Amino acid sequence: MVVGCVLGDAFPEGFLWGVATSSFQVEMGTGDVADGSDWWAWVHDAENMRRGWVSGDEPENGPGFWELYKPDFKLARKLGCNSFRLSLDWARLFPVSTEGVAVEVHRDAYGNVEKIRVDDRAIKGLGKLVDKAAVRRYRGILTECRAQGMEPMVTLYHWPIPLWLHDPIATRDGVAPAGKRGWLDEGALVEFAKYCAYAAHVFGDLVDLWGTINEVKIVSDHGFLDGGEFPPGLNDFGAFMTAMRHLSMAHGLAYEQVKRWDRASAGPLGPSSVGIVAVLHYHEPADPSSEADVNATLFNDYLFNEWSLNAVFRGDYDMDADGLVEGDEMLPHLVKGCDWIGVNYYMRRRVMHVAKGGDPRFDYGFASAADPSDIGFDTYPEGLRWVCDWAYSRYRRPIYVTENGIADASDSMRERYLLGHLDAIQRAVELDGVPVRGYFHWSLMDNFEWSSGYRVRFGLCSVDPVTKRRTPKASATVFRRIAEANRLP
Fold this sequence. Notes:
By secondary structure, this protein is α/β, with parallel strands linked by helices. It is built from 15 helices and 15 strands.
Protein backbone atom coordinates (compact mmCIF):
# COMPACT_ATOMS: atom_id res chain seq x y z
CA MET A 1 0.00 0.00 0.00
CA VAL A 2 1.28 3.46 -0.88
CA VAL A 3 1.31 5.73 2.13
CA GLY A 4 -1.07 8.62 1.57
CA CYS A 5 -2.80 7.36 -1.56
CA VAL A 6 -6.50 7.97 -2.08
CA LEU A 7 -7.77 4.59 -0.93
CA GLY A 8 -9.88 2.58 -3.30
CA ASP A 9 -9.78 5.10 -6.15
CA ALA A 10 -8.77 4.11 -9.64
CA PHE A 11 -7.22 6.50 -12.11
CA PRO A 12 -9.79 8.14 -14.42
CA GLU A 13 -11.53 6.07 -17.07
CA GLY A 14 -9.63 6.29 -20.34
CA PHE A 15 -6.37 7.20 -18.57
CA LEU A 16 -3.38 6.73 -20.86
CA TRP A 17 -0.55 4.57 -19.56
CA GLY A 18 2.56 4.81 -21.65
CA VAL A 19 6.29 5.02 -21.96
CA ALA A 20 8.16 7.89 -23.59
CA THR A 21 11.05 7.81 -26.07
CA SER A 22 12.73 10.17 -28.51
CA SER A 23 14.04 9.40 -31.98
CA PHE A 24 17.71 10.37 -31.53
CA GLN A 25 17.96 8.43 -28.29
CA VAL A 26 16.48 5.12 -29.38
CA GLU A 27 16.27 4.76 -33.16
CA MET A 28 19.87 4.02 -34.06
CA GLY A 29 21.75 0.83 -33.24
CA THR A 30 20.44 -1.26 -36.11
CA GLY A 31 19.69 -0.21 -39.67
CA ASP A 32 20.32 3.24 -41.11
CA VAL A 33 22.07 5.91 -39.07
CA ALA A 34 20.60 9.41 -38.81
CA ASP A 35 23.69 11.57 -39.27
CA GLY A 36 22.18 14.80 -40.55
CA SER A 37 21.42 16.68 -37.33
CA ASP A 38 23.17 19.16 -35.08
CA TRP A 39 23.14 16.62 -32.26
CA TRP A 40 24.96 14.08 -34.42
CA ALA A 41 27.69 16.63 -35.12
CA TRP A 42 27.77 17.70 -31.48
CA VAL A 43 28.31 14.31 -29.88
CA HIS A 44 30.94 13.28 -32.46
CA ASP A 45 33.01 16.46 -32.16
CA ALA A 46 36.54 15.87 -30.88
CA GLU A 47 36.81 19.28 -29.20
CA ASN A 48 33.58 18.68 -27.28
CA MET A 49 35.03 15.39 -26.09
CA ARG A 50 38.29 17.07 -25.08
CA ARG A 51 36.38 19.64 -23.05
CA GLY A 52 34.33 16.92 -21.36
CA TRP A 53 31.11 18.32 -22.75
CA VAL A 54 30.08 14.99 -24.31
CA SER A 55 30.79 11.43 -23.24
CA GLY A 56 32.27 10.06 -26.44
CA ASP A 57 29.51 7.45 -26.61
CA GLU A 58 27.84 7.21 -30.01
CA PRO A 59 24.12 7.16 -30.80
CA GLU A 60 24.70 4.68 -33.61
CA ASN A 61 25.26 2.07 -30.88
CA GLY A 62 21.80 2.67 -29.44
CA PRO A 63 18.80 0.37 -28.85
CA GLY A 64 17.86 0.10 -32.54
CA PHE A 65 14.17 1.01 -32.34
CA TRP A 66 14.23 1.90 -36.06
CA GLU A 67 14.37 -1.82 -36.86
CA LEU A 68 13.04 -3.29 -33.61
CA TYR A 69 9.89 -1.23 -33.14
CA LYS A 70 7.54 -4.21 -33.50
CA PRO A 71 8.98 -6.19 -30.55
CA ASP A 72 9.32 -2.93 -28.61
CA PHE A 73 5.62 -2.24 -29.04
CA LYS A 74 4.83 -5.80 -27.97
CA LEU A 75 7.00 -5.28 -24.91
CA ALA A 76 5.21 -2.02 -24.07
CA ARG A 77 1.84 -3.75 -24.38
CA LYS A 78 3.03 -6.51 -22.04
CA LEU A 79 3.88 -3.77 -19.55
CA GLY A 80 0.27 -2.58 -19.64
CA CYS A 81 0.68 0.38 -21.98
CA ASN A 82 -2.25 1.66 -24.00
CA SER A 83 -0.21 4.57 -25.38
CA PHE A 84 3.33 5.22 -26.59
CA ARG A 85 5.13 8.54 -26.86
CA LEU A 86 7.72 8.88 -29.64
CA SER A 87 9.20 11.65 -31.76
CA LEU A 88 9.91 12.24 -35.42
CA ASP A 89 13.46 13.07 -36.49
CA TRP A 90 13.19 16.27 -38.52
CA ALA A 91 16.67 15.74 -39.97
CA ARG A 92 15.92 12.16 -40.96
CA LEU A 93 12.80 13.24 -42.83
CA PHE A 94 14.42 16.29 -44.44
CA PRO A 95 18.15 15.66 -44.84
CA VAL A 96 18.30 18.39 -47.50
CA SER A 97 17.24 22.01 -47.15
CA THR A 98 13.60 22.99 -47.54
CA GLU A 99 14.46 26.69 -47.72
CA GLY A 100 13.74 26.78 -51.45
CA VAL A 101 10.10 25.80 -50.96
CA ALA A 102 8.08 29.01 -51.18
CA VAL A 103 5.51 29.83 -48.49
CA GLU A 104 3.72 33.02 -47.49
CA VAL A 105 5.20 34.62 -44.37
CA HIS A 106 3.09 37.27 -42.68
CA ARG A 107 4.62 39.62 -40.11
CA ASP A 108 3.13 41.80 -37.42
CA ALA A 109 3.77 45.52 -36.90
CA TYR A 110 6.99 44.70 -34.99
CA GLY A 111 8.36 42.44 -37.72
CA ASN A 112 7.66 39.18 -35.89
CA VAL A 113 6.59 36.15 -37.89
CA GLU A 114 2.86 36.03 -37.17
CA LYS A 115 1.52 33.51 -39.64
CA ILE A 116 2.87 31.15 -42.28
CA ARG A 117 0.69 29.89 -45.09
CA VAL A 118 1.78 26.51 -46.40
CA ASP A 119 -0.35 25.70 -49.44
CA ASP A 120 -0.79 22.61 -51.60
CA ARG A 121 2.02 23.67 -53.91
CA ALA A 122 4.39 23.92 -50.96
CA ILE A 123 3.33 20.48 -49.72
CA LYS A 124 4.11 19.07 -53.17
CA GLY A 125 7.48 20.79 -53.13
CA LEU A 126 8.27 19.36 -49.71
CA GLY A 127 7.22 15.95 -51.00
CA LYS A 128 9.98 16.12 -53.59
CA LEU A 129 12.59 16.77 -50.90
CA VAL A 130 11.47 14.44 -48.12
CA ASP A 131 13.22 11.13 -47.56
CA LYS A 132 10.45 8.84 -48.77
CA ALA A 133 11.94 5.77 -47.12
CA ALA A 134 11.84 7.58 -43.79
CA VAL A 135 8.19 8.51 -44.38
CA ARG A 136 7.37 4.88 -45.13
CA ARG A 137 9.17 3.69 -42.01
CA TYR A 138 7.48 6.22 -39.72
CA ARG A 139 4.10 5.28 -41.21
CA GLY A 140 4.96 1.65 -40.53
CA ILE A 141 5.91 2.50 -36.95
CA LEU A 142 2.71 4.45 -36.32
CA THR A 143 0.54 1.83 -38.00
CA GLU A 144 2.10 -0.91 -35.87
CA CYS A 145 1.66 1.15 -32.72
CA ARG A 146 -2.06 1.37 -33.38
CA ALA A 147 -2.26 -2.28 -34.42
CA GLN A 148 -0.77 -3.21 -31.06
CA GLY A 149 -3.57 -1.29 -29.34
CA MET A 150 -1.67 1.82 -28.32
CA GLU A 151 -2.43 5.50 -28.93
CA PRO A 152 0.67 7.19 -30.37
CA MET A 153 1.65 10.56 -28.96
CA VAL A 154 4.02 12.16 -31.46
CA THR A 155 6.49 14.92 -30.60
CA LEU A 156 7.47 17.03 -33.59
CA TYR A 157 10.61 18.52 -32.06
CA HIS A 158 12.62 16.59 -29.50
CA TRP A 159 15.88 18.50 -29.96
CA PRO A 160 17.87 17.56 -33.09
CA ILE A 161 17.71 20.13 -35.92
CA PRO A 162 18.92 19.49 -39.47
CA LEU A 163 22.56 20.46 -40.01
CA TRP A 164 21.54 22.61 -42.92
CA LEU A 165 19.77 24.84 -40.37
CA HIS A 166 22.24 24.62 -37.50
CA ASP A 167 25.99 24.14 -37.57
CA PRO A 168 26.54 23.74 -33.82
CA ILE A 169 30.32 23.72 -33.98
CA ALA A 170 30.53 26.94 -35.99
CA THR A 171 27.91 28.51 -33.70
CA ARG A 172 29.91 27.42 -30.65
CA ASP A 173 33.02 28.99 -32.14
CA GLY A 174 31.25 32.21 -33.13
CA VAL A 175 31.72 31.79 -36.88
CA ALA A 176 28.33 30.47 -38.03
CA PRO A 177 26.66 32.68 -40.64
CA ALA A 178 23.05 33.78 -40.27
CA GLY A 179 20.81 30.94 -41.35
CA LYS A 180 23.04 28.28 -39.78
CA ARG A 181 22.54 29.16 -36.11
CA GLY A 182 19.45 27.10 -35.39
CA TRP A 183 16.99 28.68 -32.97
CA LEU A 184 18.93 31.93 -32.96
CA ASP A 185 17.69 32.53 -36.50
CA GLU A 186 14.14 33.52 -37.32
CA GLY A 187 14.37 31.42 -40.46
CA ALA A 188 14.20 28.31 -38.28
CA LEU A 189 10.59 29.24 -37.51
CA VAL A 190 9.67 29.20 -41.19
CA GLU A 191 11.37 25.86 -41.87
CA PHE A 192 9.87 24.32 -38.75
CA ALA A 193 6.40 25.35 -39.87
CA LYS A 194 6.97 23.68 -43.26
CA TYR A 195 8.16 20.49 -41.60
CA CYS A 196 5.19 20.42 -39.22
CA ALA A 197 2.74 20.99 -42.06
CA TYR A 198 4.21 18.11 -44.03
CA ALA A 199 4.32 15.79 -41.02
CA ALA A 200 0.66 16.50 -40.25
CA HIS A 201 -0.19 15.94 -43.91
CA VAL A 202 1.49 12.53 -44.23
CA PHE A 203 0.96 11.14 -40.72
CA GLY A 204 -2.28 12.81 -39.63
CA ASP A 205 -4.46 9.81 -40.44
CA LEU A 206 -2.45 7.83 -37.87
CA VAL A 207 -1.89 10.48 -35.19
CA ASP A 208 -4.36 12.34 -33.00
CA LEU A 209 -2.06 13.44 -30.15
CA TRP A 210 0.66 15.86 -31.23
CA GLY A 211 3.29 17.57 -29.09
CA THR A 212 4.97 20.51 -30.77
CA ILE A 213 8.10 21.32 -28.74
CA ASN A 214 9.74 19.24 -26.04
CA GLU A 215 11.11 21.39 -23.23
CA VAL A 216 11.74 24.94 -24.40
CA LYS A 217 13.61 25.54 -21.15
CA ILE A 218 16.12 22.70 -21.52
CA VAL A 219 16.99 23.45 -25.15
CA SER A 220 17.48 27.13 -24.37
CA ASP A 221 19.14 26.85 -20.96
CA HIS A 222 21.52 23.96 -21.64
CA GLY A 223 22.36 25.10 -25.16
CA PHE A 224 22.60 28.87 -24.84
CA LEU A 225 23.01 29.81 -21.17
CA ASP A 226 24.84 27.06 -19.30
CA GLY A 227 27.59 26.61 -21.88
CA GLY A 228 28.68 23.09 -22.72
CA GLU A 229 26.38 20.13 -22.47
CA PHE A 230 23.95 20.88 -25.34
CA PRO A 231 24.57 22.39 -28.77
CA PRO A 232 25.77 25.02 -29.41
CA GLY A 233 27.40 25.31 -25.97
CA LEU A 234 26.99 29.06 -25.41
CA ASN A 235 26.87 31.09 -22.21
CA ASP A 236 24.99 34.17 -23.38
CA PHE A 237 21.83 35.55 -21.78
CA GLY A 238 20.76 37.33 -24.97
CA ALA A 239 21.12 34.14 -27.01
CA PHE A 240 19.23 32.22 -24.35
CA MET A 241 16.31 34.65 -24.47
CA THR A 242 16.28 34.62 -28.27
CA ALA A 243 16.08 30.83 -28.28
CA MET A 244 13.29 30.91 -25.67
CA ARG A 245 11.42 33.44 -27.77
CA HIS A 246 11.77 31.58 -31.06
CA LEU A 247 10.90 28.17 -29.57
CA SER A 248 7.80 29.61 -27.91
CA MET A 249 6.74 31.24 -31.18
CA ALA A 250 7.43 27.97 -32.99
CA HIS A 251 4.74 26.26 -30.94
CA GLY A 252 2.03 28.60 -32.25
CA LEU A 253 3.16 28.25 -35.84
CA ALA A 254 3.27 24.46 -35.51
CA TYR A 255 -0.16 24.43 -33.87
CA GLU A 256 -1.68 26.19 -36.86
CA GLN A 257 -0.04 23.84 -39.36
CA VAL A 258 -1.13 20.66 -37.59
CA LYS A 259 -4.70 21.94 -37.27
CA ARG A 260 -4.67 22.87 -40.96
CA TRP A 261 -3.18 19.65 -42.33
CA ASP A 262 -4.40 16.94 -39.96
CA ARG A 263 -8.17 16.73 -40.24
CA ALA A 264 -8.44 12.96 -40.06
CA SER A 265 -9.41 11.18 -36.86
CA ALA A 266 -7.49 8.01 -36.12
CA GLY A 267 -9.52 7.45 -32.96
CA PRO A 268 -11.67 9.15 -30.32
CA LEU A 269 -9.01 11.79 -29.54
CA GLY A 270 -8.91 13.11 -33.13
CA PRO A 271 -8.67 14.72 -35.46
CA SER A 272 -5.77 16.63 -33.90
CA SER A 273 -5.15 17.45 -30.27
CA VAL A 274 -2.04 19.61 -30.08
CA GLY A 275 -0.08 20.52 -26.97
CA ILE A 276 3.33 21.66 -25.80
CA VAL A 277 5.62 19.72 -23.47
CA ALA A 278 7.24 21.67 -20.63
CA VAL A 279 9.76 20.48 -18.07
CA LEU A 280 8.66 21.81 -14.69
CA HIS A 281 10.83 21.73 -11.58
CA TYR A 282 9.61 22.08 -8.04
CA HIS A 283 11.65 24.98 -6.64
CA GLU A 284 11.88 25.79 -2.96
CA PRO A 285 14.30 28.01 -1.03
CA ALA A 286 17.10 26.11 0.68
CA ASP A 287 16.52 28.41 3.65
CA PRO A 288 12.92 29.69 3.75
CA SER A 289 13.95 32.37 6.27
CA SER A 290 16.51 33.82 3.84
CA GLU A 291 15.11 36.62 1.67
CA ALA A 292 17.95 36.06 -0.82
CA ASP A 293 17.10 32.36 -1.16
CA VAL A 294 13.40 33.15 -1.53
CA ASN A 295 14.07 35.73 -4.25
CA ALA A 296 16.38 33.34 -6.10
CA THR A 297 13.66 30.69 -5.96
CA LEU A 298 11.04 33.06 -7.36
CA PHE A 299 13.37 34.02 -10.22
CA ASN A 300 13.98 30.35 -11.10
CA ASP A 301 10.24 29.69 -11.06
CA TYR A 302 9.56 32.66 -13.31
CA LEU A 303 12.32 32.15 -15.86
CA PHE A 304 12.40 28.38 -16.10
CA ASN A 305 8.84 27.24 -15.33
CA GLU A 306 6.65 30.16 -16.26
CA TRP A 307 8.24 32.24 -19.01
CA SER A 308 7.67 30.08 -22.07
CA LEU A 309 4.16 29.04 -21.01
CA ASN A 310 3.26 32.70 -20.52
CA ALA A 311 4.43 33.30 -24.09
CA VAL A 312 2.40 30.39 -25.47
CA PHE A 313 -0.82 31.13 -23.55
CA ARG A 314 -0.71 34.91 -23.13
CA GLY A 315 1.69 36.27 -25.71
CA ASP A 316 3.97 37.62 -22.98
CA TYR A 317 7.55 37.89 -24.29
CA ASP A 318 9.43 39.45 -21.38
CA MET A 319 12.78 39.65 -23.14
CA ASP A 320 14.70 41.26 -20.29
CA ALA A 321 13.11 38.87 -17.77
CA ASP A 322 12.34 41.69 -15.37
CA GLY A 323 8.82 40.46 -14.64
CA LEU A 324 7.24 43.39 -16.48
CA VAL A 325 5.69 42.84 -19.90
CA GLU A 326 5.66 46.14 -21.74
CA GLY A 327 5.42 47.61 -25.24
CA ASP A 328 6.59 45.21 -27.93
CA GLU A 329 6.87 42.43 -25.34
CA MET A 330 3.05 42.20 -25.32
CA LEU A 331 2.16 40.04 -28.31
CA PRO A 332 -1.25 38.45 -27.65
CA HIS A 333 -1.87 38.10 -31.39
CA LEU A 334 0.86 35.43 -31.46
CA VAL A 335 -1.23 33.17 -29.22
CA LYS A 336 -2.52 30.46 -31.56
CA GLY A 337 -3.78 27.78 -29.22
CA CYS A 338 -2.73 24.86 -27.07
CA ASP A 339 -5.06 21.95 -26.32
CA TRP A 340 -3.10 20.37 -23.47
CA ILE A 341 0.09 20.74 -21.46
CA GLY A 342 2.63 17.97 -21.25
CA VAL A 343 4.42 18.02 -17.89
CA ASN A 344 7.89 16.51 -17.68
CA TYR A 345 8.79 16.25 -14.02
CA TYR A 346 11.93 14.74 -12.56
CA MET A 347 13.04 16.60 -9.46
CA ARG A 348 12.98 19.23 -6.76
CA ARG A 349 15.51 22.04 -6.74
CA ARG A 350 16.37 23.70 -3.43
CA VAL A 351 17.58 27.13 -4.45
CA MET A 352 20.12 29.15 -2.49
CA HIS A 353 21.76 32.51 -2.99
CA VAL A 354 25.35 32.25 -4.22
CA ALA A 355 27.26 35.44 -5.07
CA LYS A 356 28.88 35.11 -8.49
CA GLY A 357 29.28 38.64 -9.77
CA GLY A 358 27.64 39.83 -12.96
CA ASP A 359 23.86 39.89 -13.21
CA PRO A 360 22.71 39.52 -9.58
CA ARG A 361 19.59 37.64 -10.64
CA PHE A 362 21.84 34.70 -11.48
CA ASP A 363 23.49 34.68 -8.05
CA TYR A 364 22.07 31.31 -7.14
CA GLY A 365 22.98 27.67 -6.85
CA PHE A 366 21.28 24.48 -5.75
CA ALA A 367 21.63 22.65 -2.46
CA SER A 368 22.64 18.99 -2.54
CA ALA A 369 19.80 16.55 -3.12
CA ALA A 370 18.21 15.05 -0.04
CA ASP A 371 17.24 11.89 -1.97
CA PRO A 372 19.52 11.79 -5.03
CA SER A 373 19.29 9.69 -8.17
CA ASP A 374 22.40 8.42 -9.94
CA ILE A 375 22.88 11.87 -11.47
CA GLY A 376 21.99 13.88 -8.38
CA PHE A 377 18.37 14.73 -9.16
CA ASP A 378 16.47 15.26 -5.92
CA THR A 379 13.59 12.79 -5.73
CA TYR A 380 10.50 14.58 -4.41
CA PRO A 381 7.17 13.04 -5.49
CA GLU A 382 4.99 15.75 -3.91
CA GLY A 383 6.54 18.22 -6.34
CA LEU A 384 4.74 16.48 -9.22
CA ARG A 385 1.39 17.15 -7.57
CA TRP A 386 2.42 20.77 -7.04
CA VAL A 387 3.48 21.42 -10.66
CA CYS A 388 0.34 19.75 -12.04
CA ASP A 389 -1.78 21.90 -9.74
CA TRP A 390 0.15 25.01 -10.71
CA ALA A 391 0.00 24.41 -14.47
CA TYR A 392 -3.71 23.67 -14.46
CA SER A 393 -4.71 26.52 -12.15
CA ARG A 394 -2.73 29.02 -14.20
CA TYR A 395 -3.40 27.89 -17.78
CA ARG A 396 -6.59 25.77 -17.49
CA ARG A 397 -5.65 23.00 -19.89
CA PRO A 398 -5.74 19.24 -19.40
CA ILE A 399 -2.45 17.68 -18.30
CA TYR A 400 -0.51 14.71 -19.55
CA VAL A 401 2.53 13.71 -17.49
CA THR A 402 4.66 13.16 -20.58
CA GLU A 403 7.90 12.24 -18.79
CA ASN A 404 8.70 11.07 -15.29
CA GLY A 405 11.50 8.73 -14.33
CA ILE A 406 14.74 8.22 -12.46
CA ALA A 407 18.37 7.55 -13.37
CA ASP A 408 18.82 4.35 -11.37
CA ALA A 409 21.24 1.82 -12.88
CA SER A 410 20.72 -0.64 -10.01
CA ASP A 411 16.91 -0.42 -10.21
CA SER A 412 16.88 -0.09 -6.43
CA MET A 413 14.97 3.22 -6.29
CA ARG A 414 12.60 3.01 -9.24
CA GLU A 415 9.76 1.14 -7.56
CA ARG A 416 9.59 3.69 -4.75
CA TYR A 417 9.91 6.50 -7.29
CA LEU A 418 7.03 5.13 -9.38
CA LEU A 419 4.68 4.57 -6.47
CA GLY A 420 5.38 7.96 -4.91
CA HIS A 421 4.91 9.94 -8.12
CA LEU A 422 1.78 8.05 -9.18
CA ASP A 423 0.34 8.67 -5.73
CA ALA A 424 1.05 12.38 -6.26
CA ILE A 425 -0.84 12.30 -9.58
CA GLN A 426 -3.79 10.56 -7.99
CA ARG A 427 -3.90 13.17 -5.25
CA ALA A 428 -3.81 15.95 -7.87
CA VAL A 429 -6.74 14.32 -9.67
CA GLU A 430 -8.89 13.25 -6.73
CA LEU A 431 -8.20 15.93 -4.16
CA ASP A 432 -7.34 18.95 -6.32
CA GLY A 433 -9.51 18.36 -9.37
CA VAL A 434 -6.68 18.49 -11.91
CA PRO A 435 -7.60 16.76 -15.20
CA VAL A 436 -4.50 14.58 -15.61
CA ARG A 437 -5.24 12.37 -18.59
CA GLY A 438 -2.18 10.16 -18.82
CA TYR A 439 1.23 9.12 -17.51
CA PHE A 440 4.25 8.32 -19.69
CA HIS A 441 7.22 6.85 -17.90
CA TRP A 442 10.69 7.82 -19.06
CA SER A 443 11.64 5.46 -20.50
CA LEU A 444 10.77 2.06 -21.95
CA MET A 445 14.45 1.12 -22.09
CA ASP A 446 17.90 2.40 -21.29
CA ASN A 447 19.03 4.59 -24.17
CA PHE A 448 21.40 7.30 -25.38
CA GLU A 449 21.09 10.00 -22.72
CA TRP A 450 22.33 12.88 -24.88
CA SER A 451 25.73 14.23 -23.78
CA SER A 452 25.93 11.68 -20.97
CA GLY A 453 25.77 8.70 -23.33
CA TYR A 454 24.85 5.27 -22.02
CA ARG A 455 25.99 5.51 -18.40
CA VAL A 456 22.69 7.13 -17.32
CA ARG A 457 19.93 4.54 -17.19
CA PHE A 458 16.30 5.55 -17.00
CA GLY A 459 14.72 2.46 -18.57
CA LEU A 460 12.15 0.03 -17.27
CA CYS A 461 14.13 -2.44 -19.40
CA SER A 462 17.85 -2.90 -19.91
CA VAL A 463 19.36 -3.31 -23.39
CA ASP A 464 22.23 -5.60 -24.26
CA PRO A 465 24.64 -3.38 -26.23
CA VAL A 466 25.57 -6.20 -28.63
CA THR A 467 22.46 -8.31 -29.13
CA LYS A 468 19.99 -5.44 -28.39
CA ARG A 469 17.95 -7.82 -26.27
CA ARG A 470 15.56 -6.03 -23.91
CA THR A 471 15.23 -7.38 -20.37
CA PRO A 472 12.51 -5.99 -18.09
CA LYS A 473 13.75 -4.89 -14.68
CA ALA A 474 11.94 -5.62 -11.43
CA SER A 475 10.40 -2.14 -11.51
CA ALA A 476 8.75 -2.97 -14.85
CA THR A 477 6.56 -5.50 -13.04
CA VAL A 478 5.39 -2.80 -10.64
CA PHE A 479 4.55 -0.49 -13.56
CA ARG A 480 2.69 -3.29 -15.35
CA ARG A 481 0.52 -4.16 -12.36
CA ILE A 482 -0.53 -0.54 -11.89
CA ALA A 483 -1.15 0.14 -15.58
CA GLU A 484 -3.19 -3.03 -16.09
CA ALA A 485 -5.31 -2.39 -13.00
CA ASN A 486 -5.52 1.38 -13.64
CA ARG A 487 -5.01 1.88 -9.91
CA LEU A 488 -2.31 1.91 -7.27
CA PRO A 489 -1.80 -1.28 -5.26
